Amino acid sequence: MIMKPFLIILFLCIFGSSKSQLNFDFVEVNHYEDSIFTYFVPDEQLFNEGWDLLPQPSFWKKVMMLSPDSCIVNVAATRQILYYESFTHWKSQTEEEKDSVRMDIRFNYCLDSNELLYITSGKNHFYDFKKVMPTLSKGIEVFEEQGVNPWYAQSILLIESPGKIQYSTVGAYGPFQLMKSVARAHGLTVNRSQDDRKDFVLSAIGAAKLLKKSCIPHAKRILEKQTIHYNESDLWFKLFVLHIYHAGAGNVGDLIEEMNPDFGGISLIKEMWQNTFGGFKNASQNYSQVALASNLILEELVYNECNSIYNCNESMNPVTEELLEIKHKIDAILIRDSLVPENRNPK
């Protein structure tokens, strides 16, 4: 998917909630074509802590930019990309032929005979980041008003229904993909004649309340039970909360109890990617990986296409310097990715 330049100016500001007395950093983006301002929430931890270098988010970035008629053959446990394939051709083969191909792949790449391989099709038809950009501002504003870190609004919108409103296979609906029972529990009307989940603002309020009253408190409880130290602003903690938003506190709590980790941080999230328990399965593992990939693409899109970054508050110079550092790192990533060959078929 080709991204055409459409951003020109960034303004760094702080969103202060009068209700919550919390301050959240955000960036105001000026669109070149229509002069409409939108917001996005940067997070330097993506780069300072090396999340951008992990194979899983790097893999999902490629999936999000790949057309659905192509697919990536990858190692399930690590998301190591082996090669690219025509998805149409792959689907045309019989199951016996596919098994034979998998055996050849394991042999050619010196993998264990029992190594699980995934064939993941491209999803650029779903992840249309230019379409979701206008909704980010609304989500960020609603979450700020509810006293919830707007990074969650940005991440959920990027993952769940970018530019679309549709039902999930389990019945979740709306831009924040709320289940009926969850939506009703947080003040939305859902019945045969009315479904507030399709209303963006009401859906955003419901999602913010869910995070504030359930997901974040449950995340703290689960981690404190394991005596794991956390900071709510840590990226790993926010990813942990997203897992609860997606899989439910019960499933995440059972997984953590089974894993019995001693520490939080990036190591905990990576360990969760390698483990399943109860209702916490592959889709749950993928959720934070996709969140990372989506935010990385958004940061690349914004910072790569902007000409200038302006400070709207002189007291915020240190934060501005961090954002400029992020832009330099993104430039390096784009150069690095351009040097990686797209086709690596096994011989």
Describe this structure in words.
The chain has 347 residues and is α+β, with helices and mostly antiparallel strands. The chain has two domains: 7-50 and 135-333, Lysozyme, CATH 1.10.530.10; 69-121, no CATH class. The chain is built from 13 helices and seven strands. The strands form two sheets. Strands 3-2-1-7 form a four-stranded mixed sheet, with helices on both faces. α2 (55-65) packs across α12. The longest helix is centred in the middle third of the chain and has 26 residues, at 200-225. It is globular and about 55 Å long. Residues 1-9, 17-21, 311-320 and 341-347 have low confidence and may be disordered.
Topology:
Elements: E1 7-16, E2 23-31, E3 37-40, H1 45-48, H2 55-65, E4 70-75, E5 81-86, H3 87-92, H4 95-108, E6 117-121, H5 129-145, H6 150-160, H7 180-185, H8 200-225, H9 235-247, H10 249-259, H11 266-273, H12 282-305, E7 308-311, H13 317-338
Parallel strand pairs: 1-7
Antiparallel strand pairs: 1-2, 2-3, 4-5, 4-6
Q: Which terms summarize this structure?
A:
347 residues, alpha+beta, Lysozyme, 2 domains, four-stranded mixed sheet, three-stranded antiparallel sheet, 13 helices, 7 strands, 13% strand
